Amino acid sequence: MSALRVAVVGLGWVGTHRHLPWLRRRSDVEVVGVIDHTSAKVERAKSLFRISEAAVAEGPGSVPWLDRVDAVTIATPPATHAALAAAYLKAGKDVLLEKPMALEVDKARELGDIARREERILAVVHNFQFARSTLRLRKLIADGRLGEIQALWGSQLSNPRRRLPEWYETLPLGLFYDESPHFFYLVRALLNADPRIEVVHVVAGEQGRTTPAAITLLMRAGSTSAQISMNFVAPVSEWHLTVIGSQALAVLDVFRDVLVVTRNDREHLGRHILRTTADVMTSHLGGVARSGALNVMGKLAYGNDVVIARFVEACRTRVPPKDISAMDGLEVVRLQHEVIDRVRVSAR
């Protein structure tokens, strides 16, 4: 079977550290070319990844070699996602699009309509649900190893001094809009249900800033409650998802791709506390060692390998890819805008 011929659109950090490296690892993918509106980024990526074709272009109409491409991956800023994806779909290309797929619910829905009308595959990069530790957690849940799932609790601490895209303050609720998709698709994946938002509480950020200081969401997915707390003014950056079971507790350390599992501490006596402490220390240190080794070898994928594998398979079979389809992307954008609408109402 011939290789899927792909071009990467957008050559910022995500395009050059996520899309290109993991596309190039696949023997069934040929990276034909790279595209960006900045010539310096185009030349750097072309040289660094030894790619034959390159184009400085704002859309498909300015790419002279586009007829040699079957599909594109889009890693540009969110404000450009809808227009670029629509243009490449209409140009007859399958599209793998970074999250969030659009800045408006109607635009996200329209992209799905265009993909169906053009008979093209449209997929969204919802990668952390396929990270090594997340897959392990999903298996523990499916096998009943945690007991009956009681709740899910997610927390994010974001240091404003860390590497952040220069455009994030232009988004609705700023950094919330760029990063909340990860929480929404992880809740859907882990609880196997679409969450319903019940409470939104926002603490405003500094005057003039779009990003809030903090935001907390109370949701319910099926019969299970889920709480997400995001703080954007922390001195450290951490990102955890805790699944609370009747028999055990599992904490997903998203940034490190580590899963910590500890048993029920029963009466919370001294020996029980020592046991749970040992559980936490051994699982976390062991996980950090494994992730660290993979990172050094350039093999810590954070689920991007699975996203690309599913996209390639969808391009072959013409069947929308499970968990990263246009409908999955639309549901995440819908949840984001439900939060935004509630914040606007409460601010009146």
Furnish the topology, listing elements before pairings.
Blueprint: E1 4-9, H1 13-24, E2 29-36, H2 39-48, E3 53-56, E4 71-74, H3 81-90, E5 94-98, H4 105-118, E6 122-125, H5 132-142, E7 149-157, H6 175-191, E8 195-203, E9 214-221, E10 224-231, E11 238-245, E12 248-253, E13 258-263, H7 270-296, H8 304-317, H9 326-347
Parallel strand pairs: 1-2, 1-4, 2-3, 4-5, 5-6, 7-10
Antiparallel strand pairs: 7-11, 8-9, 9-10, 11-12, 12-13
Helix pairs in contact: 3-4, 4-9, 6-9
Q: How large is the share of residues in beta strands?
A: 15-25%
Q: Report how far the terminal alpha carbons are from each other.
A: 58 Å
Helix tally?
9
**Strand order, sheet with most strands:** 8-9-10-7-11-12-13
CATH architecture of the largest domain: 2-Layer Sandwich
Q: Low-confidence parts lasting 5 or more residues at pLDDT below 50?
A: none
Structural class: alpha/beta
Provide mean pLDDT, rounded.
96
CATH superfamily of the largest domain: Dihydrodipicolinate Reductase, domain 2
Instruction: Give the overall shape.
Output: globular
Q: The CATH topology of the largest domain is what?
A: Dihydrodipicolinate Reductase, domain 2
The structural domain count equals 2
How does this model look, in words?
By secondary structure, the protein is an alpha/beta fold. It folds into 2 domains: 144 residues, NAD(P)-binding Rossmann-like Domain (Rossmann fold), CATH 3.40.50; 168 residues, Dihydrodipicolinate Reductase, domain 2 (2-Layer Sandwich). Helix content is 39%, strand content 24%. The chain has 9 helices and 13 strands. The strands form 2 sheets. It has a 7-stranded mixed sheet. Helix 3 packs parallel to helix 4, helix 4 packs antiparallel against helix 9 and helix 6 crosses helix 9. The protein is globular. The protein starts with a strand and ends with a helix.
